[in-house]
Amino acid sequence: MKLKKYFSAFTVFSIIVSGVFSYSLETLKESLFVNNPEIRGAEEEYNRAVLDYKDALAGFGPKIDLQLSGTYMVKPPVGSLSVNIDDILSAVQWPSGIKPASSGQYVKIYDGMENTLYSFQLSLEQPVFTWGKLHDAAALYKKISEIQKIKFQNTRKKLETELETRITSLWFLQKISLVLEEEQSYADEMISFSEDAEKSGMLLHQDVVEARIKAKELEIALQGVNEQITNQMIELRRITGISSLEFSEIDFEYDETIFEEFLKEDRNVLLERALSDNSDSVRMVSKARDVSDLALRISKDSVYWKPDVGLQMSMGYGGSRFPLMETNWLRKDDYSLNLSLGVKTTVWDGGKKLREVSRSLSNAESAKINEDSVKSTLRKTISEQWNTCDVSEIKIEYQTLKMETEEGKIKHQEVLFSNGYGSKADLLSVKMDLCNAEIEKLQHELSKACALLTISFLVN
Questions:
Q1: What does pTM read for this prediction?
Q2: Mean pLDDT of 271-299
């Protein structure tokens, strides 16, 4: 809780320092860590796993129970007891002529139960020998807590990558939107020019319709991009917990040089890093396999004729007064002390324990298969993302050359148009082609950036 308060205060401070309505990437990451329910849920799962591990460790020590009770009896079940003196005297064999005379008196021999009754019971249970089940159980829960810790850290890293990917996507989508708006202005100008040319008989009505269709296509494309921007912002607000967040408030500029050192590394080395035991995904499945192996050992140690040995000790007191305050407490012997050594084992349960061993063995095999599957998926995903990078790079180079060509065509058409030889429609058409090439380039740059962010997440 103190950590969350610290990050929350740090987030507010960062916002104030960077500007009233400005969020840096790091500030958004801090907000993500504090507010995102997925991260918080993973953290709570880790906390519960730690508590389970501590419970398993507590199994090594004794279990001590104390039971206290006090009772007040308005009418005690046993009252006072008195004996007639004459009855006692008559039971004695007196010599002839010496028998005493009757007195009719009574002697109280028991005052009766007191109104209060107290009971104290202290018991202790201590495992002595369990065939290693306690040790294996503690090791199992420790592995589970380690898995939950890795899961928590991986969840945070994954969402940080998602955050950066969405902001990067928004940055490119905004660029594409601006280019589409520019192209749409050329399309509107083309429509106006075509309509004037139709009136003067220089163009057919079909040419005007085609210009309008082109403008409508651009309008639809712009609407689609704006829809993507809206959806990205909705998700960005959800994962950061900032409900009023707008892209204009985010201080971000995409820079591909952040991958410069990363791209210099050998791809096979990066792949091996992703598949190594230091990788989060591999560490989780590897520890899950260890958990299955420990569960198998526990089930084998629980089969028939493997007794558990335990020590039990109990101390008790029951009487009308608190301990050591009762009259003649030592003579009354109201205290007890018992020591027991118990042995418990299952002789037969219809084969359930044997089937449990088989089930644990199957789970262990499944864990090994899952580990191989995760590594195979990682290898496939990284290869696919590298392929996306390579293809996008080629397409970016192609669109760059195409843009250079279109820029040359624009200069040529401007010269022709200024000298009265070229057509305005041709000039607008070439400008629109340049916009299309720029949009294509931005789209491929976005694909490459997302692929690199994904690879970086998987190998680091």
A1: 0.82
A2: 94
